[in-house]
Design brief:
- Helix content is 41%, strand content 16%.
- It is an alpha+beta fold and 671 residues long.
- It has five domains: 56 residues, no CATH class; 196 residues, Rossmann fold (3-Layer(aba) Sandwich); 149 residues, Isoleucyl-tRNA Synthetase, Domain 1 (Orthogonal Bundle); 58 residues, no CATH class; 71 residues, hypothetical protein PF0899 fold (2-Layer Sandwich).
- Strands 16-15-23-22 form a four-stranded mixed β-sheet, with helices on one face. A three-stranded parallel β-sheet has the order 2-12-11, covered by helices on one side.
- β22 and β23 form a beta hairpin.
- The termini are far apart.
- 25% of the residues are buried.
- The model has no long low-confidence stretch (mean pLDDT 92).
- The protein binds zinc ion (2 copies).
- The site of one zinc ion (ZN) has 4 residues, from loops.
């Protein structure tokens, strides 16, 4: 900034250069009290860091006084998601100052204000009005922008003098705020081909400008979505314009969200090296993974974005991909035809149908309230059930080409593609074309209706899955191999799982499943020293030793009695551990205890399972088809495994097993 005429010796000099001379001038005129340096915050250009200089100017404003209450009333009718942002909008509206609409820039929407010396402010309301009142410059007017618009002068409405437009252009949010009016054909008598934004968008889009009936049909909008900063910008300016011109709120519901940070929670800046360019991200992670990443996060917290988060999403989506791929593999072998009437359903088939219905209901409800984390979470839990329970428990039927299993799985996959397509459109469409229709897009099918939900059956299977999960956790603590069969498991607190003992036995590789009290676990109680130390003082030592010896009584509500002392729940640390010979895990009132004792027959079964695993790995290595039959040759040392010959044959598609004293490792040959 430079000093203007009227500042004497400082005229024409920069604000930077006059700091010293001003001090000297004040000193010479005996006006200086004190000179020195103080540290303070100072505004700089956000882009190039040049220090900025404030100056006082006149600007154009729209008064907020009259419209404030009308906008507050309008906001009352809007459904905000997440709901707490409605109050943010109210706060902004209550505190908003008059709207500064003028900008001293070259590019932008020219403000159509033509002030006259007589005191009249002429305002042009339309292109037609400009044509009518112009006295010169119309012939060179290419479009309603500078420089052309500045060369058009009009006649003052009051005194007839020739007047010029002010130089300022409008705040960009004026344009953004009239988006409905400029694109939906408001007051436009005739449909204009490629006339979007009344010609202002020429060269940018070929979109049409519809006529007023289109406006009537589509205004107000059902839904808008943008970042939280738009409360003070776009959400506000749309509302300001719509309430002013039409009297109605321009949108029915809003989905808003917080800022995007990098995956470590830092702002992204090119200069920090952590900014990610959109096209690069689309190439590296894929558009669907990117959408998934956004959708799974709570929009009212700052969003994280980056490649390792994307890898995690990919890993999770892979489960679904693999499920479809599993289906396709066996559907091909069985020449699956979805129009074949479905056979009799087994309990697990009925469960998957019921589980799918529950999933559709849950997802639909989450979509209705624009809660994407709920949609994504429901999908991931459903895929876990589909893949890690239905397919896992049914895989033998697929090996046998069971049409009912194929049909039930197909229905579940088809429905899940329909409901998840809005979140992952490309992948969903690709898979849809693979397993449902090559001719008709997933987006052209109606939303699926949820079928019947068997709540009791769904709860039963959920209980079974919980027992199996705890059983696996218990096994993991025992250091026993996953393939080692065990004698017995005791389950407490999962009554719904009672009728599924066979499945639990198979999943956990145990011979017997018992439901009842688990006395295989014991309570270990230790003093919570930071709390109990100060309270008990010298008595702590005795209490601690008594607890270690197990000399305590369990009271109500997590309290314990040790000798004369009663200990509260926050004064002790309680642990449920397995007794010697047992592996125990518990959660949410369910306890699962595995008997870890082994005998020779269990040990032999483990060896058989190892062999089956090894043979099937060989099948894969040698590129055998899923249906190929084989002959197995075993070293003499493994001949004891032949006690389970039928079992081995069944699991490896072997027709023959022979013992050969010369071979050192099991071998297979295709027949
Ligand atoms: Zn700058
Ligand atoms: Zn005038």
């Amino acid at each position: 900034g430079r000093f203007l005429p009227g500042y004497g010796e400082f005229e024409g000099r920069t604000t930077d250069a006059v700091a010293e001379p001003v001090v000297e001038w004040l000193h010479e005129h005996e006006l200086l009290v004190e000179a020195g340096t103080i540290s303070h915050r100072y505004p700089v250009c956000w882009r190039c860091r040049t220090p900025l200089v404030f100056r006082v100017v006149d600007d154009w404003f729209i008064s907020a006084t009259e419209i404030r209450q009308l906008m507050l009333d309008g906001n009352d009718e809007v459904a905000w998601h997440p709901p707490q942002y409605k109050k943010r909008m109210d706060d902004w509206l209550r505190n908003m100052s008059d709207w500064n609409i003028s900008r001293r820039r070259y590019f932008g929407l020219p403000l159509p204000f033509y002030p006259c010396e007589c005191g009249r402010l002429n305002v042009i309301g339309s292109r037609a009005e400009l044509d009518e009142r112009a006295v010169s410059g119309l012939e060179q007017l290419e479009e309603l922008h500078r420089p052309w618009i500045d060369a058009v002068s009009i006649r003052c409405e009051d005194c007839g003098a020739e007047v010029k437009r002010i130089e300022e252009v409008g705040d960009a949010w004026l344009d953004a705020g009239i988006v409905h009016f400029s694109t939906l054909g408001w007051q436009n008598p005739q449909w204009m081909r490629e006339g979007n934004a009344t010609g202002a968008a020429r060269g940018v889009t070929h979109a049409d400008l519809p006529d007023h009936t289109y406006w009537e049909e589509w205004f107000p909008a059902d839904f808008v979505t943008e970042g939280r900063a738009q409360i003070r910008l776009w959400f506000y300016s749309q509302c300001f314009m719509a309430i002013s011109l039409d009297g109605r709120q321009p949108y029915g519901s809003v989905l808003t969200y917080e800022n995007l940070l990098d995956e470590n929670g830092r702002e992204m800046h090119k200069s920090w090296g952590n900014a990610i360019e959109l096209n690069e991200a689309l190439d590296r992670m894929g558009a669907d993974v990117m959408r998934w990443l956004y959708c799974e996060q709570n929009p009212s917290q700052e969003l994280r974005f980056g490649y390792s988060l994307a890898d995690d999403v990919k890993r999770r989506l892979l489960t679904f991909w693999n499920s479809v791929s599993f289906f396709v593999t066996y559907a091909r072998i069985a020449e699956f035809d979805p129009s074949t009437p479905v056979g009799e359903l087994r309990p697990l088939d009925r469960w998957l149908a019921s589980r799918t219905s529950a999933f559709v209901t849950e997802v639909t409800e989450n979509y209705e309230r624009y809660w994407m984390p709920g949609v994504v979470n429901a999908f991931e839990r459903f895929v876990d059930d589909l893949s890690n329970w239905y397919i896992r428990r049914t895989r033998r039927r697929f090996w046998d080409g069971d049409e009912t299993a194929l049909r039930v799985l197909w229905e579940a996959l088809r429905t899940s593609l329909q409901v998840i397509a809005p979140v992952m459109p490309f992948l969903a469409e690709h898979l849809w074309q693979n397993i449902v229709s090559k001719d008709k897009s997933v987006f052209l099918y109606p939303w699926p209706e949820a079928g019947e939900i068997d709540e009791a059956l769904n709860a039963e299977v959920a209980a079974v899955r919980q027992v199996v999960e705890l059983g696996r956790q218990a096994r993991a603590t025992s250091r026993l191999k996953l393939r080692q069969p065990l004698r017995r498991v005791v389950v407490a607190g999962a009554d719904g799982a009672r009728s599924h003992a066979d499945e639990i036995a198979e999943e956990l590789r145990v011979k017997e499943v018992e439901f009842g009290d688990v006395d295989a676990s014991e309570l270990r109680v230790k003093p919570n020293l930071p709390v109990l130390g100060p309270k008990l003082g010298a008595a702590l030592r005795d209490v601690r030793e008594a607890l270690a010896r197990g000399e305590f009584d369990e009271l109500e509500a997590g309290r314990f009695r040790v000798g004369d002392h009663e200990l509260g729940p926050d004064e002790v640390l309680v642990e449920q551990t397995g007794k010697e010979g047992w592996a125990v895990a518990s959660a949410d009132g369910v306890t699962v205890a595995l008997d870890t004792a082994l005998d020779p027959s269990l040990a032999l079964e483990a060896l058989v399972l190892d062999l089956i695993h090894q043979i099937n790995a060989l099948r894969k290595e040698q590129g055998l088809e899923l249906t190929d039959r084989i002959r197995i040759t075993l070293p003499a040392a493994q001949s004891e495994l032949l006690e389970h010959e039928d079992w081995i044959k069944q699991e490896t598609l072997a027709v023959e097993i022979e013992i050969d004293g010369d071979c050192a490792e099991p071998q297979i040959a295709k027949i």
